[in-house]
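for the writeup, i need someone to sanity check this before i put it in the appendix. the sequnce is what the collaborator sent (i think, or maybe the updated version? ugh). structure was predicted straight from it, no edits. if anything looks off just tell me and ill rerun, i have time this weekend
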Amino acid sequence: MKNKAEELKMRVMFCFLENPDSTVTGISRTLNEPKQTISRMLMALEKEGLINRENNRHPKLTSDGEYWANLYNKRMNINLHYLMYNGVNIEDAREDAMYFALHSSDATMKMIAKTTEILRIKSEPSMKRKFSGDWLCNNLSDGIYNFPFIIYKEIAKNGNNISMANRGFVHPCTITVKNGVGIVQLQAVAMSEKSSLNGETMTGKVKNMRYFSYGEYIQAETIGDLITFPATALEFVTDGTGSEKILHGRVGVNMECSVGPEHMAEATAIFTVII
């Protein structure tokens, strides 16, 4: 059940963000609520240390009040866009966004914020059907994003186009974006496969990767089990429209396993990230 009193408190605080010189009469008109109700809300906010009513005619947000008002306003906007990107009409989205802003955990809000950012990118009018990883990172907000990926064989064999190397990494991968620069990070894990030479089961890890960029294969950075390469190497193609759009980012890769390259099913594969 929604707590209308808490939602009204938040809406009153938002009024002070929009107009620091708000009055009881002005807030009453803006929110279409009786002046007596607004006065009670201001008294409650004063008790919580969020409103200063020393000047009763011109109350002000305290520093704590400004902090919480801005925080919940940000939460409200994130939830509003998330719901609207997912097809909720604006009237219902506004009401539900208010509720989610008040009651969602920080962890949930981080998840919603990242999902909303991806939905925003998919709806970006300047996105072309084909674009580079550089364009993606220049348009994404800073953050660490988890995306599913598949490593395909360069040439399908026996109707199977999934590379053995697809089992050689933790799923999903991460793309870290900061100041328009993106880094793809993979974590190698042990994988087992029967040797084509003697039938014995071999176990090893991908220890070396090179990615294709500007006409040549370039050495990826490897630190322990972590392998990274720049997101600029990815070439994207889109499928679908609007928030339902799927983005496929691809790059050719060469990999070497710790048990020896002769035990790799294929040397060259196609890394594909799916957004």
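The radius of gyration is 26 Å. The helical segments are 4-18, 24-31, 35-47, 63-85, 90-103, 106-122, 133-139.
thx in advance!!
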